[in-house]
Amino acid sequence: MKKIIVALVVVLTLALLAGCGEKNVQPAGSAAGQKESAAANKEQRIEKLVAAWKSGGLKAEIGEDLGVTTAAKNLYGAVKGYLVIIEGGLVVVMEFDPDNLNSVARNYLSRVEAEGSVPRRGDGVREPHWKNQEFTLMGSSDLDINKHPHKDKIVEIFKSFK
């Protein structure tokens, strides 16, 4: 268990460092400013998703906003990732821009929709992933979501989120 925790800390640290970079600030009236406004609205969407889990009787909070990490972009084509703590267990929520999907995102999302699982890197073990609108839900490296005592409720609320 200690090895898993240490591995998770190392991976998260590397992911955060990979996502660090210079931010390009634009005036609010510019096209970039409008995109930032849309991004702020999307941040509210993740908060609404977490609120939906809470309304369903689960203790849930955003544990860490992973931002735009290299792993999120390269492995999934996501625009942002979040670690969400639900009833003490970590799950990963990836956010996509449905109007601007790259080939990596299209491939990943089509596999999730068609198969409901994706092979894990390294050992090829298939892990369940779920899609709902601009988000996907998956287990984290320290939690097999199938073993979470509230898995059915977590997935049910995620899939019904509007």
Report on this model:
With 162 residues, the chain is α+β, with helices and mostly antiparallel strands. It has one domain (2-20, 40-160). Helices cover 45% and strands 23% of the residues. It has a 6-stranded antiparallel sheet, with helices on both faces. α3 packs across α4 (103-115). The chain is globular, with a radius of gyration of 16 Å. Residues 1-28 have low confidence and may be disordered.
Keywords:
disordered N terminus, 162 residues, 6 strands, 6-stranded antiparallel beta sheet, alpha+beta
- Beta-strand content: 15-25%
Shape: globular
Distance between the termini: 36 Å
- Give the total of beta strands: 6
List the secondary-structure elements in sequence, H or E: HHEHEEHEEEH
- Classify the secondary structure makeup into a structural class: alpha+beta
Helix coverage percent of residues?
Answer: 40-55%
Mean pLDDT: 76
TL;DR?
With 162 residues, the protein is α+β, with helices and mostly antiparallel strands. The chain has helices at 2-19, 31-55, 70-76, 103-115, 151-160; strands at residues 60-67, 80-86, 89-95, 117-119, 126-132, 135-139. A six-stranded antiparallel beta sheet has the order 1-2-3-6-5-4, sandwiched between helices.
What order do the helices and strands come in, and which of them pair?
Blueprint: H1 2-19, H2 31-55, E1 60-67, H3 70-76, E2 80-86, E3 89-95, H4 103-115, E4 117-119, E5 126-132, E6 135-139, H5 151-160
Helix pairs in contact: 3-4
